[in-house]
């Protein structure tokens, strides 16, 4: 049934409401909340979506099938998304569209240097802006004529996906606190906080990242983050 649906979506022509019909999108993103946002944007636009949560998973996907669009978060648990972007843009035949993505606007330069066609700064909730970015990066030979992303609709990811992200970090804080893992936690939480508008968490994650970078004491940062994460998990335990 899924294969039949995928084939139907591929053979359909784009429409003003679903300008990305016929495209397949691979989203390489470790945050469930950010992935849910991408899923909704693709679904509302008519594109099929597959998700990988690490470089290893993405490369496994890419050995099996060739998507039309690959959207790569720059901070992944097993390395930099910029490495995957460089691989994709150097491979022939080339994927039609390769986009970098990050909650850090400064990462645009890193994405561009790796060869990306464009950059998504998280959070992105505008359906029209998402559609227009994809369409503008498509090669002229594959770009639909007369179809533009003009929707003013906003998407709103399920809060359960956000709590899944916090549970993931709580598990990491319990099982592993190596320097490398703490750097990843700071980066991950910073992106999640920006995507969800959680200013308090963003400040805490930034403080940990800065103190780690300059070899300053960071024990209080870890304790603060652990408390904030737990506070955001607790509400879903209430029946």
TrEMBL record:
Coiled coil: none annotated. InterPro entries: Bact_response_regulator, CheY-like_superfamily, Sig_transdc_resp-reg_receiver. Pfam families: Response_reg. Keywords: Phosphoprotein. CDD domains: REC (cd00156). This is Response regulator receiver domain-containing protein. The keyword tRNA processing does not apply. Residues 24-137 form the Response regulatory domain. The modification 4-aspartylphosphate is found at residue 73. GO terms for biological process: phosphorelay signal transduction system.
């Amino acid at each position: 049934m899924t294969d039949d649906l995928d084939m139907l979506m591929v053979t359909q022509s784009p429409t003003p409401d679903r300008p990305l019909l016929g495209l397949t999108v691979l989203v390489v993103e470790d945050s469930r909340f950010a992935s849910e946002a991408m899923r909704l944007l693709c679904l509302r636009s008519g594109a099929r979506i597959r998700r990988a949560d690490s470089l290893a998973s993405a490369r496994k996907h890419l050995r099996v099938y060739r998507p039309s669009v690959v959207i790569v978060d720059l901070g992944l648990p097993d390395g930099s998304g910029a490495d995957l972007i460089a691989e994709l843009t150097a491979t022939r035949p080339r994927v039609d569209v390769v986009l970098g993505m990050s909650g850090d606007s400064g990462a645009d330069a890193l994405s561009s240097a790796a060869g990306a066609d464009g950059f998504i700064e998280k959070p992105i909730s505008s359906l029209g802006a998402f559609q227009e970015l994809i369409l503008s990066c498509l090669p002229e030979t594959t770009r639909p004529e007369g179809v533009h992303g003009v929707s003013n609709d906003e998407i709103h990811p399920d809060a359960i996906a956000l709590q899944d992200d916090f549970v993931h970090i709580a598990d990491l804080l319990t099982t592993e606190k190596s320097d490398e893992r703490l750097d990843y936690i700071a980066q991950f939480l910073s992106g999640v906080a920006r995507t969800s508008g959680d200013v308090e968490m963003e400040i805490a994650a930034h403080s940990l990242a800065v103190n780690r970078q300059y070899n300053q004491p960071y024990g209080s940062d870890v304790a603060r983050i652990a408390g904030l994460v737990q506070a955001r998990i607790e509400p879903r335990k209430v029946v």
